[in-house]
Amino acid sequence: MNDRLDAFFRISAAGSSVRTEVIAGLSTFAAMAYIICVQPALLSGVMGGHPTGMPFGALLTTTCIMSAFGSILMGVVANYPIGLAPGMGSNFFFVFNVLCGCAAATGMAIGTPEVWHAALGVVLLSGVLFLAVSFTNLRKSLLNSISPSMKNAIAAGLGLFIATLGLKNGHIIRIEDGQLMLGAALTDPAVIIFGAGLVVIAVLLIRRIPGGILIGMGAGALIALAWGRIEFTGICGLPANPMPVVAKADVATVFRHAAELIPLVVICMFMDIFDTMGTVIGVGTNAGLIRNGELPRAERVFAADSVATIVGAVGGHSTVTSYVESTVGVEAGGRTGLTAVVVGICFLLALIFFPVISSVAGYAPITSSALVAVGAMMMRNVTDIDWQDYSEAIPAFLIIAGIPLSSSIIGGIAVGLCIYPVIKLLAGKGRKLGWFSYLTAVLLLLYLGMAGR
């Protein structure tokens, strides 16, 4: 068996072994397993406090299944040690912008099936577009059309937005009369549970212990259980029926309201491309897989990621994408697709622990510590913004500040990306921009015009 795996994944040629690849896969899974709790809580509205109409149990089941599919596909097709799951950032964009956009376009309230069906249609179409450009030179053109500063600003802005929601759900802050204020007292059980989980996560991340976020949530869950905030319903059990969210993506509604929703499709596609490229370059560099500045089998990587997004939308989820946590597995020695396959198998095995996962995911202060930690990680992108060039720095700052302060991901992105080409043109640097920067600004202006009517 080891010889067959070695031959298929070219493990020996990569300077690794089956044992090392398995350990790397387990390490990567431990680092990204928090999404099993966060994703269903967010998409169902349990985390945000506003029901979306999507059933929590079905989402938990399909989170594991879609993550397993994407990871195994990446391993088999592209032979890269990269795990996939519904992406942090894109899932918030789905809940706070795509759902709202679909509600406004259809004239129906969030929570009705028609709205989230249409939102899944937006994600599915973004995956189809991503797949279409994966095998063409257009992929490079799109990536080069928006500067690194803008890409990193979007990631940092999303990090602040995610952390803000985590602080809110952890009762650290509250919104009163439209203003952010300090939340509950330090004796509030939610604050203690959140704080304890965050401290554990921080310490484990500092010590570079794999699975720090997952272990931190576990610590918070134990305190919540002792405090009577969650109920212990068992460790193992059958997962919930996934069918209530499967095959619900409504593409027809997206086309009927193309003027309002196609910009969302394009933005979802771009977020997926940025996530994938950034993750793959980072993981590939750490693993020594970059050759002469080029990424071997790049088209396979993008194809696997885009197909995972398409299938993920069919399975009821926001964009499924490559996870930067895969670097944990690379540091453990993972060099081939077997690492990703092991990650996928672990996601399937997680279904056995449905009762305990659903208990943890159902109490927001537990998962909130993970949101703050992920937000902090995403803020690292600010160091790659060109702060010395004000034609880059000012639009980037508007995006970073605009996303959390406006409580709108697309709103913050739109402010920065709309003013970006204007500043460049007036500063005499307009020719340095890719054509898609101008098209993106026009699409966002049209979207904001439609949304403001």
What would you note in describing this structure?
- With 453 residues, the chain is mainly alpha-helical.
- Helices cover 68% and strands 3% of the residues.
- It contains 20 helices and four strands.
- It has helices spanning 2-9, 18-32, 35-44, 56-78, 90-106, 113-134, 138-145, 148-169, 189-206, 212-226, 251-256, 258-287, 298-314, 326-331, 337-350, 354-361, 364-378, 390-406, 409-426, 435-451, and strands at 84-86, 173-176, 179-182, 320-322.
- A two-stranded antiparallel ribbon has the order 1-4. The chain has a two-stranded antiparallel sheet with strand order 2-3.
- A hairpin with a 2-residue loop joins strand 2 (173-176) and strand 3.
- Helix 3 (35-44) crosses helix 16 (354-361) and helix 12 packs across helix 20 (435-451).
- The protein is globular.
- The termini are far apart.
- The mean pLDDT is 87.
